[in-house]
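Look over both lines before class:
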Amino acid sequence: MSTRVYGSLARIADFRNSNYDVQALPRSDWATGDYVEGEVVGTITEFYHIEDRSGHMVRVEPGDWVIGALGDRAATLEGVGSWRDIGPDGRMDTLTAAGLTGRFTSYSTLLPEPLTLKYRGHLCRNNRKVCMSDFAMKGDFRGFNVPTLLLVGTSMSAGKTTTGRRVCKELDRAGLFVIGAKLSGAGRYRDILSYLKTGATEIFDFVDVGLPSTMVPEADYRAALRPLLGHIEDLQPDLLVAEAGASPLEPYNGAALIDELGDNVVCTILCASDPYAVVGVEQAFGLRPDLVTGPATQTSAAVELVYKLSGLRGINIIDSEQNAAFRRFLADKLGLPHNNHSLTATG
């Protein structure tokens, strides 16, 4: 008997096993954000897991059914693919473990084979397909004025989420009301869940506004993002910790995100894969961060090279001996008083 597993892209929906039908639709009816079901096929590898609606990883086997959403991904270290590349044979790949579904056209030879699916159909109600946008956060946008700490990277796996967790932890210790959000990238739940576990009071991402990834036209991205920013504004946090997935130069609308945040960005941390990548992002995007973290700061030699190349300070935040230095940086940049053991909020 087949087991049905819902990817975390379905966490905004109200799905139960009996409240929809699975119908094969013609390709002319397919679109980004459609909920689809595929049967697991192929040879099992370590990627035969799905991140469920609670963020837990669930092992799947051939014959199981996986529910995800059609979308696109362009990961520099893993793979590139789109739902538009799914062929007549109905073979699909999970582009992320969240159930982002498409077909890889470029894939790292250093990785095991991805989880492969066979298209079974779209999730439908009353002969109408069910889409992520049906459950998206809606609302009028009346402006955004929340102080924001922005995390950007030189690529994927550059340390953005690790840095975000540390920021949330330190500011929670200071007694601040912090919201954590991942506002561009490809759908996964684990990143923002880790913000919740380390100090953020509320968490959000682009899935909440109906996007499986932010590889969509810029106008669509901005229209989807604004209700989320408006909702965060209504909650009146002391600070938003906003992660931009990938780098501003990759096709995830990172530049549009930074533009939407505007002058509300009070601190920018660049998470870099190596010292030379810091210079690359600075020159290509015109971004002058307040601090560098990530693999580019793993040793004193790396930190020195970051400064020599860019004049920017680097802190290795996973080194416990650098905790005090990072707290001082946050206190100075955010206008909080110093304390030997933690930050303390004013007022």
Observations:
- The first helix runs from residue 160 to 173.
- The helical segments are 160-173, 190-197, 218-235, 254-261, 275-285, 300-310, 323-334.
